[in-house]
Design brief:
Order of helices and strands: HEEEEEEEEEEEEEEEEEEEEEEHEEHE
Strand content: over 45%
Shape: globular
Largest sheet: 10 strands, antiparallel
Structural class: mainly beta
Distance between the termini: 27 Å
Number of helices: 3
Length: about 475
């Protein structure tokens, strides 16, 4: 075969392998996310592939929620396949490399409908271990939550349940596919990181890494919905209850349940409803969350998703603070917390023409609570009797008025994309953020607080980005 004929044949093979234009270069924009909680289709999930190990490297910035990540996955091929389908939604993929040896080569890939389709290297056979490295960036729409915590301090926490790992790292995001995992997490200098498994390359869980990268490794295979990290400016200690560096505390048995309903994805209007419930501390601690939502596909031009999240948290052993008295004695205090949280999320996509599209995202968020009954650990925090683990805290200045919190936040993005000539794109972006914190719960209801979000000062960011394709 002549050289130019061979090139044409290779290009035709790649086009057949990946529907649409296969590419190995970065996209210009984060693709829109898909709703979480969709029921997978009947039959095997990711047939022919079995994830063995994930190495998730992610960088959380000093400000904002824009992350950069590199995830490397070791996958066993159980049957011959030409395309690997990974779950990844709402983040921009910059590059994909793949291979069956230590040397990886650039791989053709395509992102669509919340999936990342990667060309399997030629010559890969059943029984081989495929190594895939994905480089990506963007603002997670879910899964990895980077926002103020209930104390108003910025933090990051991964909540992948039931299938939200795909919002911050590529994976075979199904509870039936288990793998080992290691994390390499770079965070602001004052933060610490906790994750599944054990710290790697450190003498203790609290030791601060010299290179600024926190490494954790989980040797037992687990599903992606339990592959989580937590990062914030907190004290890390090996304790049974979060006494923040204090002694271990006995924990009573707990009960938890979750479930959900999802409509028929073939319909133009698809409702869904998810909930979870937990009961701890002999019934003194309870948590309930419900998340209704609906996905609308009004036409081939317009699609939208709107959902709400409501949670009630009654926590009888909420860590409150560690205090040192005048004689140097350390007191580890806990309080009863009554907390309510609400958020609304709306996403919309409209296609004016194949070259002109509009994407909109908006989410108001409110969390409020009040502390009461401040106690400290007793001389025997491992007592079998629940009340024997705690004793009244004697500092009246703290115990008499423990206060509370009220966190309000709003984030929105509007992106207009115009491909004014083939390969040349203009973006007009508007981002708005509002944030407020008070040290008391306040008398207003959750619905009123959601309305109050729009009275907060707005931080508006406008961005114009243009690219011009030069072909020679």
């Amino acid at each position: 075969m002549k050289p130019h004929a061979a090139l044409r044949a290779a290009a035709l093979a790649a086009a057949l392998l990946l529907p649409g234009p296969a590419k190995a270069a970065a996209q210009d924009l984060e693709p829109p996310p898909v709703p979480w909680g969709r029921v997978p289709p009947p039959g095997p999930y990711a047939a022919g592939f079995d994830a063995l190990h994930y190495r998730v490297a992610v960088e959380i910035p000093d400000t904002g929620a824009y992350i950069r990540g590199t995830t490397t996955i070791d996958i066993r091929l159980s049957a011959p396949r030409d395309t690997l389908v990974l779950d990844l939604t709402g983040l921009r993929v910059n590059a994909v490399h793949a291979g069956t040896s230590a040397t990886l080569s650039p791989a053709a890939f395509r992102q669509t409908d919340g999936r990342l389709r990667v060309a399997v290297p030629a010559g890969a056979r059943a029984g081989d271990t495929l190594h895939v490295r994905v480089e990506y960036e963007g603002t997670p729409d879910d899964g990895l939550l980077i926002r103020p915590n209930l104390h108003g301090a910025r933090s990051a926490f991964a909540d992948n349940f039931p299938d939200r790992g795909r919002f911050w790292f590529p994976s075979i995001d199904h509870p039936g596919d288990k793998a080992t995992v290691e994390y390499e997490v770079r965070v602001p200098a004052s933060w610490e990181v906790v994750a599944n498994g054990r710290r790697a390359g450190a003498d203790s869980d609290a030791a601060r890494p010299a290179d600024g990268v926190w490494r954790w490794r989980m040797e037992a295979p687990i599903p992606t919905y339990t592959m989580v990290i937590g990062a914030a400016d907190f004290a890390v200690g090996t304790v049974a209850r979060c006494a923040r560096g204090g002694p271990a505390v006995r924990v009573d048995p707990s009960v938890s349940a979750w479930g959900g309903l999802n409509g028929d994805d073939r319909r133009s209007l698809v409702p869904n409803l998810w909930f979870n419930y937990s009961r701890e501390d002999g019934g003194r601690t309870r948590y309930f969350n419900v998340g209704p939502g609906v996905n609308l596909r009004a036409s081939t031009r317009f699609s939208s998703w709107v959902g709400a999240s409501l949670s009630w948290n009654r926590q009888d052993t909420q860590w409150y603070g560690n205090f040192t008295d005048s004689v140097g004695t350390r007191h580890y205090t806990f309080a009863h917390l009554e907390q309510r949280t609400a958020s609304l999320t709306w996403r919309g996509d409209y296609t004016f023409t194949p070259d002109l599209t509009l994407q909109v995202y908006a989410q108001p968020f409110v969390s409020k609570g009040t502390y009461a009954n401040v106690r400290e650990l007793s001389a025997d925090p491992r007592a079998s009797d629940y009340d024997g683990r705690y004793q009244p805290y004697g500092d009246a200045a703290v115990a008499a008025s423990p206060g509370g919190f009220n966190v309000k936040q709003f984030n929105s993005n509007v992106v207009l994309r115009w491909e004014y000539r083939p390969g040349s794109v203009l973006f007009l972006v508007w981002n708005q953020g509002r944030e407020g914190f008070a040290g008391v719960e306040g008398p207003r209801s959750l619905s009123q607080n959601l309305g109050d979000v729009f009275d907060l000062r707005a931080d508006n960011t406008f961005l114009v980005k243009a690219s011009y394709w030069i072909n020679w």
